[in-house]
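Q: What would this chain look like folded?
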Amino acid sequence: MLYVLLSAGPRRYALAARSVVEVVPLLRLEPLPGAPPSVRGLFSYRGTPVPAVDVSLLAGAGAVPERMSTRIVVVSVEEPGGRRRLAGLLATSVTETVTRSASDAPPAGLRLPEAPWIESAFVVGDEVVPCVRVEAFLPAEVRSLVDAAEGAA
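A: My prediction, written as C-alpha cells:
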C-alpha cells in the first residue's frame, strides 16, 4: 500500500494515499465558531467549505505554524452510510511517500481515546511512523458544524 508522509509538529505521520485528494498550499482559514481547537477553520476547496484539522494540535505538540512550506492535505473521509466528505489536514511539510505491505503496518494494539485517529504504525529508517485513520479526524459535532456552514454558503 502507498502512504503519504506528512510532518506535523516534531513527528511524521502516514496517510493511505487512496485517501488523499490533493496537497495544496496553506489557504486562508475562516474560524469555525464552536469547533474544537484542533479544527483551525474552514477553507474553500473548489467552492466547497472544508474543515482544516491541525494534526500537530491533536498530538499535543502546538499548532502547525503558518509558513510558506505549510500544506493542507485534502483527504476524502468516508462517513457512516457511505457518504464522502472532504477534510484538510494541516502539515508543516509533505515531501515523501513510502510503500508498505499490510503486514508492515499491523494494528497498533493500543487504542487511546485521546488519539482515535492513530490506527497502526510502521518503521521508516529508524523512526516509528504512526498511520492515521482519516475517518476519525472529524467527530460528529464538527461534522454538524461543517454541515451548517455548507448550508449557509
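The beta strands are 2-8, 11-16, 20-25, 39-45, 48-54, 71-78, 84-91, 93-99, 118-124, 127-132.
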